[in-house]
Structure to design on (195 residues):
């Protein structure tokens, strides 16, 4: 039996050969958390591998936004953060280890990461579907014409997976604070709050 060579791709951004392309990328925190200084993080909130709280009124959960891969193994997965209402966050937390959580109705949320390789993804509307204990929730985007939503519905090719890898590997982790004031305004408006 012949040994299979590792899969690699040549990056068009840096010209180097890389293993992969990876079929998943993880955002380590909501962008709003990433924009805080270490001191602000200590005083304003808490971040675990799957949940985040900022101030007394910002609640986030981590989930998997999956894109079907049409011509290869898949799906391609973005591990992303979504904001939830306090009620839904508490409900999800209460059911965290409950096997019956799969029977929950989806929770509404806002995507809270700017993903590389797309027009702005912050504040896209989502539904968060709980899955079996130990599996991150499935993040379903509102069916719009945003390229990420289209890719979730229609799927992507391996060539697109390589494009995403190139964008993600050369993406700046710096998030401008003005993105968060915009996100907060959108969420407050949707919830009927001022400001």
């Amino acid at each position: 039996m012949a040994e299979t060579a590792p899969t690699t791709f040549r990056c068009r951004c840096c010209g180097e050969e890389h293993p992969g392309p990876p079929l998943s990328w993880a955002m380590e925190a909501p962008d709003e958390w990433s924009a805080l200084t270490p001191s602000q993080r200590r005083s304003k909130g808490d971040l675990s591998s799957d949940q985040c709280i900022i101030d007394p009124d910002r609640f986030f959960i981590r989930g998997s936004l999956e894109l079907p891969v049409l011509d290869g193994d898949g799906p391609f997965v973005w591990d992303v953060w979504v904001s939830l209402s306090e009620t839904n966050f508490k409900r999800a937390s209460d059911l965290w280890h409950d096997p019956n959580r799969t029977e929950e109705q989806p929770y509404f949320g806002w995507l809270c990461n700017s993903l590389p390789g797309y027009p702005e993804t912050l504040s896209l509307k989502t539904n968060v579907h709980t899955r079996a204990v130990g599996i991150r929730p499935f993040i379903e985007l509102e069916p719009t014409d945003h390229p990420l939503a289209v890719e979730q519905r229609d799927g992507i090719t391996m060539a697109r997976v390589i494009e995403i890898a190139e964008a993600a590997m050369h993406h700046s982790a710096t998030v401008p604070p003005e993105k968060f004031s915009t996100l907060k305004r959108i969420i407050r408006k949707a919830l009927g709050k001022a400001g």
About this structure: Residues 1-6, 172-184 have pLDDT under 50 and may be disordered. The CA atoms of residues 6 and 135 lie 28 Å apart. The longest strand covers residues 58-67.
